[in-house]
Structure formats: C-alpha cells, structure tokens
Specification:
By secondary structure, the protein is mainly beta. 0% of the residues lie in helices and 62% in strands. The strands form 2 sheets. Strands 2, 4, 5, 6, 9, 10 and 11 form a 7-stranded mixed β-sheet that branches. Strand 5 and strand 6 form a beta hairpin. It is elongated. 27% of the residues are buried.
C-alpha cells in the first residue's frame, strides 16, 4: 500500500509564505516524478509544479517565480515552498507520485495521490 501524506497547509495573510510537505510511504513502488496540484471550489484541478528524480522541474505560469518545488529522494518527500501568496491561491493542495511497480507479469505504472491540505490566504 502506497500512501502520500501532505502537511503544512493553513491560514496566511496576503503576501505571506507557506511550505507544504508530502511524504510517500509504502514499499515496492519506484517513484519517477512527483508533483503538486490544487483544486479550488468551482474550478478545475490545476497543475502547479513537478519534479523528476533528476531534479528537473516544471512550473505552471500562474506560480512561476513564487512557488518552488523540491524533493528529498532519501525521504521520499516532495515540498512546495509558496511565497507572496494571494487570495486566489486559496485551495486544497494535493501532491502526487508517479512511478511503477515490477510485478510477476510485467512493469506497471501508476500515479498515487494524497488527501490534500487546505491553504487559505486572507486579504
């Protein structure tokens, strides 16, 4: 069983900062990339950032320059440092881990998701 657990959400004022963490637990799953998404009420889920095992990063334009994704492979963890937060950043934030597992009949890929952590930015 692979599980992802986010933490670090909360209430912050406009212009403030938060750092989200996501830890992956479970055996037998080889992670290739991890990422962060968010989902605000009445909006589509939005990609924010991703990072590969080699440290290559991709950012959405909406957060580029304000958010930084990082990863600790030894801890199977991914982080999202968020600066200069705005009310429109308020949402539930989710991490995911993409990778695969070797089974008897072959290699299977999957993406796991965490339960989310709530971020609220007050104006």
């Amino acid at each position: 069983q692979v599980r992802l657990m986010e933490s670090g959400g909360g209430l912050v004022q406009t212009g403030g900062s938060l750092k989200l963490s996501c830890a992956v637990s479970g055996d037998g799953f080889s992670i290739s990339a991890m990422g962060w998404y968010r989902h605000a009420a009445w909006k589509h889920r939005e990609f924010l950032a991703s990072i590969t095992n080699d440290g290559e990063t991709v950012y959405a334009d909406s957060v580029k320059g304000r958010f930084t994704i990082s990863r600790d492979n030894a801890k199977s963890s991914v982080y999202l440092e968020m600066n200069n937060l705005k009310p429109e950043d308020s949402a539930s934030y989710y991490c995911n881990a993409s990778g695969g597992r070797q089974l008897e009949d072959g290699w299977y890929e999957h993406t796991y998701w965490g339960q989310g952590t709530r971020v609220t930015v007050s104006s």
